[in-house]
Amino acid sequence: MSIEFKKQTLSNGLTIIAECNDEAHTSAVGYFVKTGARDEERPIMGVSHFLEHMMFKGTLRGRTGEDVNREFDEIGANYNAFTSHEMTVFYAHVLPEYLPRAIDLLGDMLRPALRDSDFDMEKNVILEEIGMYEDRPQWRLQDTLLEHFYNQHPLSFRVLGTSDTIKALRVEQMRDYFGQRYGADHITVAAAGRIDFDTLVGDVEKLAGDWPRAQATRSYDPPSVSYSQKAVADAKLNRHYVAAICPAPSAQDPRRYAAMILTDVLGDADGSRLYWALIDPGLADEASFMFEPQDHTGAYVAFASCDPERAAEVEAKLLETIDVYAQNIDTGEIDRAKHKIATNITVHGERPLGRMNNLGGTWAYLAQYTPLEIELERIMAVTPDNVRQLIQDLPLNPRTIVRLGPK
């Protein structure tokens, strides 16, 4: 299979990257905007996610919200958007003959009408979404964990915002935020699959060549993390939830590959140490240890849920399993984790949508292209000594712990 990477930057700073594969049967394209909750001010917390919703409500060129959804359906697109702490992404996966329409439609959405009436209506949708997630214990636990760990740093912000910040948000504030963060030099168009790169560049340039540059940059002030413990009681719950967080490598740190191995061995859904310690014996119904690489920072997050009567036992076993790992690293576990991760990445990368997401996400953090073969080589090169050194450099304790349950 012949795969070729190509890149071009327009005069306004918008970057276009693609992994072209003539043997692919589909094409995927995404607009990656380098903005998210960490780029907001506290009074307008949630504006990035709210703005993502507004992109589907109508465009400056005259498409209505109904037009947007109908046209995606007309081309049979698998399409969606998401907002995180660090980026907002709009994407579509289509048959190659519909790629120009997908590019135009997604790009048109990124110049939204932002009408007062749409804003007022969608605000109710956002408030309903916040209420829905507040009824989900794991979501509440995560928000509380980040707030206590990151203190006043914007990484502590809630991606959805709060009911108070969304109710107070004005459409003029959203328009200002859009002008600051959605400039051409904050946007990368990533594509994968069957791609004619010259046509792709021409289509994007015709659409976005006159978009202005952004007026804002991202702050990389390191978070002043806090190590604490907090318990939240909710009599409506019938399960107990616990989570712990501590520093980990960033998305730019070469040690991220060792961190991937470490978290797979300790906390993958199947066959990990936490699985055998908590799930297999029936102590907990969920247990995990995850690696969250971020822009110039990162975190490990441990989680478990169980019967409230077993809360203390499960938490003790969760933290013990993590803490003793450095003293008994098993080479066989490391090798199995490498093979499993390599397989998952390869399977994910066999679909243009998976490669497009990897391309755009990696470029947002590193501004460089990493072929799948190189990514696999780096994973397979991790040794037990690399994992030991990682734990020595970034110990898994101290940490912040949050508990949520009926007691």
Could you explain how this protein is built, in words?
The chain has 407 residues and is of the alpha+beta class. It has helices at residues 47-54, 65-74, 99-109, 116-134, 137-150, 163-168, 171-181, 197-208, 256-267, 273-279, 311-323, 331-349, 352-366, 372-380, 384-393, and strands at residues 3-9, 15-21, 27-33, 78-83, 88-94, 187-193, 229-233, 240-247, 286-294, 297-306, 400-405. The model has no long low-confidence stretch (mean pLDDT 96).
Structure summary:
By secondary structure, the chain is of the alpha+beta class. It has helices spanning 47-54, 65-74, 99-109, 116-134, 137-150, 163-168, 171-181, 197-208, 256-267, 273-279, 311-323, 331-349, 352-366, 372-380, 384-393; strands spanning 3-9, 15-21, 27-33, 78-83, 88-94, 187-193, 229-233, 240-247, 286-294, 297-306, 400-405.
Number of strands: 11
Regarding quaternary structure, how should these chains be classified? Answer: single chain
Low-confidence stretches: none
So how many helices? 15
Share of helix, binned: 40-55%
- The secondary-structure class comes to alpha+beta
Largest sheet: 6 strands, mixed
Q: Distance between termini?
A: 57 Å
The H-and-E topology, N to C, reads as EEEHHEEHHHHHEHEEHHEEHHHHHE
**Order of strands across the biggest sheet?**
1-2-6-3-5-4
Q: Which range does the strand content fall in?
A: 15-25%
pLDDT averaged residue by residue? 96
Structural Rg: 22 Å
List the keywords:
single chain; 407 residues; alpha+beta; five-stranded mixed sheet
Topology at a glance:
Layout: E1 3-9, E2 15-21, E3 27-33, H1 47-54, H2 65-74, E4 78-83, E5 88-94, H3 99-109, H4 116-134, H5 137-150, H6 163-168, H7 171-181, E6 187-193, H8 197-208, E7 229-233, E8 240-247, H9 256-267, H10 273-279, E9 286-294, E10 297-306, H11 311-323, H12 331-349, H13 352-366, H14 372-380, H15 384-393, E11 400-405
Helix pairs in contact: 3-8, 9-12, 10-11, 12-14
